[in-house]
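[step 3/7] fold_predict: job queued, chain A
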Amino acid sequence: MTGFFRDIAPVTYEGADSDNPLAFRHYDPDELVMGRRMEDHLRFAVAYWHSFAWEGGDPFGGPTFQRPWYPQDDMARARDKADAAFEMFDILGQPFFCWHDADIRPEGATFAESLRNLEEITDYFAQKMEGRKVRLLWGTANMFSHRRFMAGAATNPDPDVFAWAAATVKTCMDATQKLGGQNYVLWGGREGYETLLNTDLGRELDHMGRFLSMVVDYKHKIGFEGAILVEPKPQEPSKHQYDFDVATCIGFLRKYGLENEVRLNIEQGHAILAGHSFEHELALAAAEGMLGSIDMNRNDYQSGWDTDQFPNTVPEVALAYYHVLKSGGFTTGGTNFDARLRRQSLDAQDLIAAHVGAMDVCARGLKSAAAMIGDGGLEAALADRYAGWDNPQAQAMLTSDLDTIFDRVCSGEIDPQPRSGRQEMLENYVNQFV
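[step 4/7] structure written:
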């Protein structure tokens, strides 16, 4: 035991009037929302990399955090880090956690040594999970930090790197399976390019498609019952990443025949970097039946890069969960806090408080979204706006041809008159609930 979280009691729900900074004011796991427990709707997860592996550095300065398990270079410290992680899971009552392989085990001198480290810590995790509620939401492979991946993993011009990446994913899928993970995620951190001058874009996309097909094949081979998820991001670290946004990912999956096998893990910060809103990305994925899970965070709107801050804006979160609930809610997916402390927030208490606040924000957003759905105002407004399409003649037009439509317009039968979109009224409506 590290004692890192000593003297911090398990967090409990105390209600909106509580002045305890380490108590839930809005997140009551057992509260029923649309007939389902709040905990089962939200399915919160702690991100192992930001909470335990990140050392507080940024592009202009080195680590600011001092943790008992630093430096993260041997298995004894990996176990210490796991001890601290599971202490925090207990304190927060989180039902899930997520990891990359590089977060939980030290890098070995060889692939075989790294694999031994991964297998050892996987067994240690399994022991820690016995008798606890916490489960693995998803595992994934870090194929972007090590210099071998500087030109990509599946899209690397060196076939040896492709092979190394394939073997790495196999080991991480095996570990995820062993721990009962409910999803496996692939984020192509460097699956993109810096310049087209040295990039065969078509070849790289084909290799990426083949790589993902092998992942799906292996899922079925080992009987993994969870979902395979890919995570869109437009840039950073690569200048242009192939998994730019939800629309790009859907087009990619359809091109390679994977649209029925793979869903999307969508992050708020990545949506902003792509020039979209989080709700846009969620709504599009839901409309195409590909919404799998979410990474919940926020960006600093002045910085222009992925700052991975904890969510604190209820209206944004409410609209996100509105689309999650409208799509039927999570099945294997959940709400992973892909968020990190600010590098001046040094204490163990800061890490707990950040998650407590974020969980409360999400709880408020979920309840607001459920209230909007229950009221039905947005659905009624949509039905009214598109009511003209319920007309049989309008429906027939969709199976008609240009000449027939042309004749109808020329006959003077129709005379389109613009109607208000009532955006301001709808925005005011939403604000009644948040």
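[step 5/7] annotate
The chain has a mean pLDDT of 96.
DSSP finds 16 helices and twelve strands in the chain.
exit 0
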